[in-house]
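Before anything else, study the sequence and fold tokens given here and see whether the fold suits the sequence. Record follows:
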Amino acid sequence: MEHKKTFSEIIRGDKPVLVDFFATWCGPCKMMEPIMKELAGKIGDRAVLLKIDVDKNPIVASTYRIQGVPTLMLFRNGEVLWRQSGVMNVSQLERVINQYSAATVL
């Protein structure tokens, strides 16, 4: 049986991880769903996309001080590289991922 990675294991990777913190009752969060799907098709394996339901993962939401949803965060090697609240379009998110995938970590 394959080991399912934990949130902290996923964000500690050397590939950028874009996390969409959302709630099922949140209207703007529902708008992010097709945006994230389209983004996944555009970026391929350059980054990992992850959705975290704040109601089902209150400890993670609290750890990263998520106060409004949707909140998007980009992690790499366990570090927060970027954070933004609110709905963003595909090209904005792709730009952020490209900016941090190209950045070399010393």
